[in-house]
Each structure stands twice: as C-alpha cells, then as structure tokens.
Amino acid sequence: MQPKTNFEQPWITRCFAAVLLFGQVWLHLLQGKTYYRKILQHLVTAGPGSISPVLLVSGFAGMIFTIQTARELVRFGAVNAVGGAFALAFCRELAPILTASIMAGQVGSAFAAEIGAMRVTEQIDALYMLKTDPIDYLVLPRVIACCLMVPLMTVLALVMGIIGGVFAASQFYKIIPETFLESVRNFLQPSDLFIILLKGFIFGVLVAVIGCSWGLTTRGGAKEVGESATKAVVTSWVSIFIMDFFLSLMLFEQPAF
Fold this sequence. Notes:
The chain is mostly helical. The protein contains nine helices and no strands. Its main location: membrane.
C-alpha cells in the first residue's frame, strides 16, 4: 500500500512566497512587459463581474449602520450628528473593508482556483516551455486589474452606502436627506476620499497577490485547488483587517498632546 502523499504546505511558507511574489510583481512592472488583453479581461472580472454583490452589501450595510446609530443619537437629541457618525465609521472604514472582503471572496478565490488548476495540470510548466514568464502572463495583469478596480468599486460602495443611509434615516427616523448629507459633508474631509482610494489600492494589491500566490504554490490535485482558494480568501481577509488597523493608526490617529 502506497503511503498517502501530503501536499499541504505550511501557512508561513506560503505567506513568505506571497511576499516574494509581491516583489517580483513590482520588478516586472518596472520592466514594462504587460499583456494588455489579459488586463482588460481581468478588469471585467474584477469590475462589472463583482459590482452586484458590492452594491447590494454596501446598500444594506449603510441602512443597518444608520438604523443602529440613529436610534441612539435621536434619543439624545443629536439628530444633526447622524450623518457625521455615518461618515466617520462607514465611509472611512466599513466601505473599504466590505468592498475588499467581497472582492477577496469573489475575485481572489477565482484567481487562486484558476492558477492552482493550471499548476496541478502542468499548464504553467508549458508556459516556461513557450518562454513565457507566468508572472508577466498570469500574475501581473490580475494585480493591475485589482489595483484599478478595487478603489473604483470602493467609491461605488461608498455612494451606495450613503444612499442606503439616507433612505433609512428618512424612512425610519424622519431625518430629511438634506440634514443627513450636510452632516456627512461637515465630518468627511476631502482628504478622506484620497485615503479611501489609497486603502482600496492597497487592499486590491493584497487580494490579487495573495490569490495568485496561493494558486502558484498549489500542489496535488482538485482537492488541493479548492483548499488553496479557501485559504487564499481567509488569508486575504486577515491581511485586510491587519493592514486597515495600521493604516488607521498612521492616517487618523491624533497625538495626545
């Protein structure tokens, strides 16, 4: 009886491989060799192919957050602060994280599964035989697509969340839209939009690099491909929250003196 082969690799090893892949991606990007047709293909996957769940989740999240905050603020007579609380929490934090999490579940898992299937069926080895670098052909177009589309999807999620917040505030607490939007405008600074786009860009890099790295390091068969896709999503979520924590400390933390 043949012993069962263990294809599972340590998580820390695959994380280290993802860091190395990140460096390779930017090195290849500086070299300027890109497959534009592949970029357009993945732009569709990361953009129009993911817009429905992003808008749906953002709209309901905006309504839920408004209902929970408005209930307490209205009780204390702080109706004018409802939109401000929404701006500080949802616009700065929830919209980028929710968007990146959805993209990780839909796009990152697809990247890991596609590249993982190519790895176990030796299609990536065939690329080497054709003198085609897998980084240029498979990874770089996906990273560029996510870097462009995740910030855009974050802005769309932000708009949809505000629409949901306005609807919930007006329907359940009789707060007129003008009051809500004026409060949002007073609390949300123009620099916050830049920060939101920056977060979307960084989260897009994480989703694409982790998904591609977990695909490239897949070994075994169909079962391992599915496991790689699942682990890529979980790792992306963990990385997104850790990165958001440090970004929030650097960008929003005020000195105590």
